[in-house]
């Protein structure tokens, strides 16, 4: 199911560009991606043995978004996101995938154990840094 | 025989990751193809 969701996540953009985009579609795309990340994090924590702190970044996203929306329109919240932020998100999704991999053996579990204490706080720090860039000062300016 | 049994899970793990990487590569190619047309 996770693999299917990732497939649709990757293909929804090109399909939308071919068929025509809309502001609502852009919102649904981002929110569905975030819901996928949160669901994968919850599944990886419950079934994949990841520590609960790996839920921090996917959960933190929602209060930070709510706070940013108090002074910025939705489309501007994500407009200036740097490219490197995408890579930490991919690393996080890879961690969840590895934790849930049905073929995961000793090597996979070892890699997950080593990566989790790095990837989870880095992603949370990236989210806080991105939110800081959108501070009310910048919105007023 | 015993050695074979010990190698089995590691082989399945490598095959699983190889299949996963192939899947990711296939989706990536499909995405690029959709964007090019």
Order of secondary-structure elements of chain B: H
Question: What is the helix content of chain A?
Answer: over 70%
Question: What share of the residues of chain B does DSSP label as strand, in percent?
Answer: under 5%
Output the structural class of chain B: mainly alpha
Low-confidence stretches of chain A: none
Question: Could you state the oligomeric state of the chains shown?
Answer: heterodimer
Count of domain modules of chain B: 1
Strand content of chain A: under 5%
Mean pLDDT of chain B: 81
| Termini separation of chain A | 44 Å
Helix/strand class of chain A: mainly alpha
Radius of gyration over C-alpha positions of chain A, nearest whole angstrom? 16 Å
Give the total of domains of chain A: 1
Shape of chain A: globular
Biggest beta sheet attributes of chain B:
none
Order of helices and strands of chain A: HHHHHHH
Largest interface, Cβ cutoff 8 Å: A-B, 19 and 17 residues
Structure description:
The complex is a heterodimer of chains A (141) and B (37). By secondary structure, chain A is mainly alpha-helical. Helices cover 79% and strands 0% of the residues of chain A. Chain A contains seven helices and no strands. Chain A starts with a helix and ends with a helix. Chain B has one domain (1-37). Helix content of chain B is 95%, strand content 0%. Chain B is rod-shaped and about 45 Å long. The chains are: A mainly alpha (141), B mainly alpha (37). The A-B interface holds A 3, 6-7, 10-11, 13-15, 17-18, 97, 101-108 and B 9-10, 12-13, 15-17, 19-20, 23, 27-28, 30-31, 34-35, 37.
What's this model, at a glance?
The complex is a heterodimer of chains A (141) and B (37). Chain A contains seven helices and no strands.
């Amino acid at each position: 199911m996770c693999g299917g969701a990732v497939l649709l996540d990757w293909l929804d953009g090109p399909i939308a560009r071919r068929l025509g985009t809309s502001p609502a579609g852009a919102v649904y795309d981002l929110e569905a991606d975030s819901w996928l990340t949160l669901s994968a994090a919850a599944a990886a924590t419950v079934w994949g043995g990841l520590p609960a702190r790996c839920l921090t970044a996917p959960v933190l996203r929602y209060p930070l978004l709510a706070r940013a929306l108090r002074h910025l329109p939705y489309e501007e919240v994500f407009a200036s996101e740097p490219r490197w932020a995408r890579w930490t998100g991919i690393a996080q999704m890879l961690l969840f995938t590895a934790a849930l991999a049905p073929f995961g053996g000793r090597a996979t579990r070892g890699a997950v154990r080593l990566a989790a204490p790095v990837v989870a706080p880095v992603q949370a720090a990236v989210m806080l840094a991105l939110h800081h860039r959108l501070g009310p000062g910048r919105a007023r300016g | 025989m015993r050695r074979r049994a010990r190698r089995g899970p590691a082989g399945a793990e490598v095959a699983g990751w190889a299949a996963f990487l192939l899947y990711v590569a296939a989706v990536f190619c499909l995405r690029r193809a959709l964007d090019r047309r």
